[in-house]
Amino acid sequence: MQELIAKQSKSGAAKPYSTIATILSVLAMGLGQLYNRQFMKGVILLAVHAFTLYTVIFQLPHAVWGLATLGETQTQLKKVGRLYQQVMGDHSVFLMIEGLVTIFAVIILLWIYVLGIKDSYRTGKLREQGGVPNTFRQTVSFVLSYRFPYLILALPLAGVFFFTIMPIVFMILIAFTDYTAKNMPPAHLLSWTGFDAFRDVFQMKGWNTTFYKVTLWTFLWAILATLTGYFGGFGAALLVQQKRIRFKSFWRTLFILPYAIPMFVSMLILQNMFNGQFGPINQYLELLGFNRIPWLSDPTWAKVTLVIANFWVAFPVSMLMIIGIMSTIPKDMYEAADIDGASSFQKTRLITFPSVMYSMAPLLIMSFVGNMNNFNVIFLLTNGNPINSDLQFAGDTDILITWLYKLSMGYGQYNYASVIGIIIFIILSVFAIWNVRRTKAFKEDTSS
Amino acid sequence: MSRKLRGSVWLSISYVLLAVIGVFSVYPALWVVLSSFRTGNSLFSETLFPTAFTLEHYANLFSKYDFALWYTNTLKIALTTTVIGTVLTLLPGYAFSIFRFTGRKTMMSTLMVLGLFPGFMSMIAIFILLNLLNLLNTHLAVILVYAAGAPLFFLFAKSYFDTIPKSLVEAARIDGAGHLSIFFRIVMPLSTPLIVYTALSIFAGSFTDFLFAKLVLRTPETKTLAVGLFDMISSRQSTDFTSFAAGCVLIAVPITFLFILLQRLLTEGLTAGAEKG
C-alpha cells in the first residue's frame, strides 16, 4: 500500500498541486485550500477574502482621501428654505483615526493573504510528495500546541496595539498639522502643515529659548533625581545591613514607608508641608530663629524642593533592591578580605560597591529615563511653577513632559505638544535601545 | 583610639543616622495622620501634636463629600484592572521566557521601548479614540486603558520565569502535560512573589492614578478617590485641609499595610528582576 502511494506520487509529479494551489490562492484567499481539500479552512479564508474586498473597495478610498485632505467641507451655516441651519462638515480628527484604522486593517488582511498563499503552496507540495493534508481538527490542534506562544500573545498585543501604538502614531501625525485650540474640529478643518511646528519650536524666538531651558532642566533634573535616589538608597542599605545593627527589619519597614504611600498622596502632603506661609517646615525654621525659605515660589528653591521630595520617595526602592543584591554577594569574599586585614571602608569600596554597581547599572539607566518623565512629582508638587513670563506656556520647574501636558491639556497647543512628544520619543529611544542591547535578559538568549 | 572603641563610636553614629532617616521617612505621614485629628480646618498649626482630638473630619468625608462612592468606584476599577492586567502581564512574560519563536526578539524590544513612554504622551489620541467608541465617562474605559497598558511591563515577569529551571517544564512536557496545565500547575505555584509583585503594582497604579481618571471621568458619580481628593485641595485656597488629611489616611493606610505585609515577597520579586537586569 505504502509503495503504491509512493509510486502514485512519483507519477503524480505531473500533477503540480503546489502550482495550481498557489495560483488559486492568489486569485482568491481560500481557493487553494479548497483545492487542497481543506474545506473548513478554505471557507473561513473565503469569508476573509470577501471582507477584504469589501474593505478595499468601499472603505480604503475614503480612508486615503480622509488622510490626505483631512476633510474638504467645513461646518457652516446654510440656507435651507428660509432658515439658516448648521450643516456638519468633515471632522478632520475622526477622518484621521478612521483612516489609520482602515489602513492598519488592510495591512493585516494583506498579511493574511500572503500567509494563505504560502500555506496553500506548502500543502500542495506536501500532496505532491504523497502526504495527506491536515484535517481542520488537526490544524486546530497543531496551532494549539505549536503556535501556543502566538495564541497567548495575541490578546496582550492587541491591547498594546490599540491603546499604545495607534495613539502614538496618531500623535506623530498631529505634529504635522495645525491642530490648536483655536483651530479645532469639527468647527474648523485641519490641514497638513509639514514641519512648520518643528521649525517654530527650534527657531521661533520665545519658543526656542523655552525649549532649550526646559530640556536643560529636564536633563539636570533626571541626573540629580537618579543620583540622589540611588546613593541615598545605597547609604541606607549599608547602614541597615551592618553586622552589629539590631532590629534590621524594623528599620527597613520604617524606611519603606515613603515608598508604600501612594505617590499622589505623598506629593500633595509634601506640597502642603513646604507651603511657604503655613507649612510646618517654615514654622519650625522660624521657631529655630531662621528666615522662612520660599520653598515653592523661588525658582531655585523650587528645584531644590523637587529634588528633596523625589529623594524622599525614591531612596526606599533602591535601598530594597540594593539590600537584595548585597545578600547575593558571597560571604567568603568578605572573610578573605578580613584575613587580609581590610577595613570595613575598603570592603565596601572594593567588594560591595562594584558588585552592586554591576547589577544596578541597567536599572540606573531605566530610572534615569523614568525621572526624565517623572510627571507626578513635578505636576503635584510645583505644577511647573513658579510662572516665568519669558517662557512659552511653561514655568521654571517644568520638564519636557509637564510642558507637553500644559501645552495640550492646558492651552490646547496640540501640534506643538506633539512635537515635544516626538522629541521625548527620540531621546527616550536612544536610551531604550542602548539599554535593551546590554540587558542580560537579551544576552542570555543569544547563547541559547 | 583602639579598634574596638572606634567600632562602638561608629555603631552609635550609625544608630543616630538610622534614627534621623527614620524621622525623615515617617514625619510627613505622621504629620498628616495627626492633622486629620486636629480641630479646625486649616493647614496651619502651632504644635505638631494637636491639643484637641476630633473624628469630625472623617465623618465629614462621608457626609460633606461622596467619599464612600469614590471608594467603591476606585475599588471596582482597581480590582478589575488588577485581575485583567496581571494576566496580560504574565502571559507575555511566560511566552517570551519559555518559548522560542519567530519575531520573539522584535516583539520584546518593541514592547520594552514602548514601555518607556509615559502613557499619557498620547492621551489626546486615547481620549478621541474613547470618544469614537462612545466610552467616555465610563469606568470600563479606564479599566480598558489601564489593563491594556500592563503588558508593557512584562520584563519583570520574564526575568522571573527565566529563573525557573527549564528541566521542570521539559519533564512535565515529556509526561504529556499540555501547555496550559504546565502553566497553571507547575509554573504558577512557583511564582508567588512575582504574581504578588505584579498584582500589587498594577493595583497600586490603578488605585492611585488621577491623571487619566481625571481626564475621562467627568461626572461626580464616576469620580475615583484620587480625583476626588485632588479636587478637594487643588482649588488653591486649601480651605478644608484637615478633611483632605483624613482622606489621605483612609487611602494610604490600606495600601501601606498591603506593602508592609507583603514586604518579603516584594523584595524577592524586585530582586529577581534586578539580578537579571
Report on this structure.
The complex is a heterodimer of chains A (448) and B (277). Chain A is 72% helix and 2% strand. Chain A is mainly α and 448 residues long. Chain A has two domains: 18-71 and 87-193, no CATH class; 198-446, MetI-like (MetI-like fold, Orthogonal Bundle). Chain B is 73% helix and 0% strand. Chain B has helices spanning 3-36, 56-63, 67-98, 104-116, 123-132, 139-149, 155-162, 166-174, 179-187, 192-208, 211-216, 225-234, 241-261, 263-276. The longest helix of chain B has 34 residues, at 3-36. Classes of the chains: A mainly alpha (448), B mainly alpha (277). Chains A and B meet through helix 5, helix 7, helix 9, helix 10 and helix 11 of A and helix 1, helix 3, helix 4, helix 5 and helix 6 of B. Chain B: This is Arabinogalactan oligomer / maltooligosaccharide transport system permease protein. Chain B: Pfam families: BPD_transp_1 (PF00528).
Element layout with pairings:
The complex is a heterodimer of chains A (448) and B (277).
Chain A: H1 2-11, H2 17-27, H3 31-35, H4 39-69, E1 76-80, E2 83-87, H5 92-128, H6 136-146, H7 148-174, H8 196-203, H9 207-240, H10 248-260, H11 263-273, H12 280-287, H13 299-326, H14 331-339, H15 344-372, H16 375-381, H17 400-410, H18 414-438, H19 440-447
Antiparallel strand pairs in A: 1-2
Helix pairs in contact in A: 2-5, 4-5, 7-18, 9-13, 9-15, 10-13, 11-16, 13-15, 15-18, 17-18
Chain B: H1 3-36, H2 56-63, H3 67-98, H4 104-116, H5 123-132, H6 139-149, H7 155-162, H8 166-174, H9 179-187, H10 192-208, H11 211-216, H12 225-234, H13 241-261, H14 263-276
